[in-house]
Specification:
486 residues; mainly alpha; Four Helix Bundle (Hemerythrin (Met), subunit A); 3 domains; two-stranded antiparallel ribbon
């Protein structure tokens, strides 16, 4: 079939929205990403309500709260992040190409994994394991759900849409983002290979805590890379959408992403040493320290430079920060830099550690939320005014809450507050620690409000799209290519 001529005059945000409309497999992943965020909120609500009289009388399992916490983390971080990333990856699928069976059913496979995790979380007396990166429940049903979800994400990669073609991402819109998506896909494959090697090299006779901690240690580091790459991809899309020009050329992006990912190719080799080996621990720690922050910082500089040029050339108004796309980038970038600074300040096992990772997780989440609003058309000129205003407030609301949350934890940690302590275990020793925990709590409430607002925006956008599906999918609204193919 002959390729359509590209309408390069069409705004990128409209191009992305219409491209999504022509790719039902990407739509399914996007809906799944919103659904697991709702589930994450329900599990968090279960923790709160389950402690309140008279409902607390119904909870006879002492491990109920920690199981809900594990399920919440798996939904809010793992399932949400990689469902949204899978949706982005499937935007590269040519509209005229029929995907293979694995790609067609990838979202359904992942959804089955989510259901299995929910069932596993409800098994009475099942032991929660609060392992770093990917916590789990020591029950075959929950762990099967985690593996099935991961298989669904990998199934979304099984197609030619991620391979360089004659178009080679040098034509069409957002070529730099295309290179970033391919780099993120490579990181997911590296993470899967690292997990497989770690599973094969896992020593026998370990208890549940040590077993799962060592099993996902290396994989978690590589998944951090995948999230950082996906966050940068969204930045590139947001900046190009707001300014009309990409922050970096296609060739420059290809080189930067290749150099960024290349050192991580040793991850499976490190995992082959065994999770407890000193070389593996040191190697993965150094990859995290020096293999993520420099790449992110380079793209922060490039994106800020693009905004400054657009402002100088008159393509951005003085009130540009009110644009949700720019606000989303700025909030995400600030949280990223804060996360790096807090990570460098870690000295021992205190609340500086959760301050670091909540800032980093918040940075990715803000970027994905803003990107989701763009894909769903919540920022489009034709969207209802209330929807667009809500979308404008959401990134700074959620991001500001996460900034306060991380700052409160950092203040408490700087004065010796230990991590993974709850209630009376915290034993606050001074005014600074108490103030830090209060700031952390206030920031958490603000972030929750921002999360709820995002779900309202997402739900309203999905409902609005469903009402205008026939018009959006009409042949006259052919999508503009993200990667060069119509």
């Amino acid at each position: 079939m002959a390729r359509r001529e590209l309408d390069l005059e069409q705004p990128l945000e409209q191009s992305l929205e219409r491209r999504l409309a022509g790719r039902p497999h990407a739509q399914r992943w996007l809906v799944l990403s919103l659904s697991v965020l709702v589930l994450a909120g329900l599990f968090a609500l279960a923790v709160v309500v389950g402690r309140m009289p008279p409902f607390d009388r119904w909870v006879t399992d002492p491990l109920f709260f920690k199981r809900c916490l594990v399920a919440h983390v798996n939904m809010a971080l793992v399932a949400w992040f990689y469902s949204f990333l899978a949706a982005l990856l499937l935007l590269l699928l040519p509209r005229t190409e029929t995907p293979n069976a694995l790609v067609r059913h990838s979202a359904s496979i992942a959804a089955l994994g989510v259901v299995l995790q929910m069932l596993g979380a409800g098994v009475p007396n099942a032991q929660p394991v609060l392992a770093n990166y990917i916590p789990t429940i020591d029950h075959w049903l929950f762990q099967l759900g985690q593996l099935v979800f991961g298989a669904g994400v990998l199934a979304s990669l099984c197609g030619p849409h991620l391979l360089p073609s004659r178009a080679a991402a040098t034509t069409g819109r957002a070529p730099a983002a295309v290179h970033g998506l391919r780099a993120a896909a490579a990181a997911l494959l590296l993470a899967a290979l690292t997990f497989a090697v770690a599973s094969a090299r896992q020593p026998a006779g370990l208890g549940p805590e040590a077993h799962f901690e060592l099993l996902v240690w290396g994989t978690g580091h590589v998944l951090q890379l995948a999230c950082a790459l996906a966050m940068v991809v969204v930045w590139l899309l947001l900046i190009e959408s707001a300014t009309g020009t990409p922050p970096v050329s296609s060739a420059g992006a290809a080189a930067l992403f290749a150099v960024w990912v290349a050192p991580w190719a040793i991850a499976p080799l490190l995992a082959s040493q065994g999770g407890a080996a000193a070389g593996a621990r040191t190697g993965f720690t150094q990859l995290m320290q020096f293999g993520i922050a420099p790449g992110v910082c380079i793209f922060v500089v490039l994106c800020v430079g693009a905004l400054r040029r657009a402002r100088r050339d008159g393509r951005l108004a003085a009130s540009a920060l009110a644009d949700p796309r720019i606000a989303g980038f700025v909030v995400s970038a600030v949280l990223s830099l804060l996360g790096f600074a807090l990570g460098a300040a870690i000295r021992g096992s205190n609340t500086m550690v959760p301050a670091h990772y909540h800032a980093s997780v918040g940075a990715v989440t803000v970027a994905f939320m803003t990107g989701c609003c763009v894909l769903l058309g919540a920022l489009a000129p034709g969207a209802p005014r209330a929807l667009r205003r809500a979308a404008a407030w959401q990134p700074p609301l959620y991001g500001g809450g996460m900034l306060l949350f991380a700052a409160g934890f950092a203040l408490a940690g700087a004065h010796g507050m230990g991590r993974k302590l709850y209630g009376a275990e915290q034993a606050t020793r001074g005014l600074a620690e108490s103030i830090g925990l209060v700031v952390m709590g206030a920031g958490g409430f603000v972030a929750v409000a921002g999360g709820v607002l995002f779900l309202v925006i997402g739900g309203a956008s999905v409902w609005r799209r469903s009402l205008r599906r026939r018009r959006v999918l009409a042949p006259t609204l052919a999508p503009v290519s993200l990667g060069g193919d119509a």
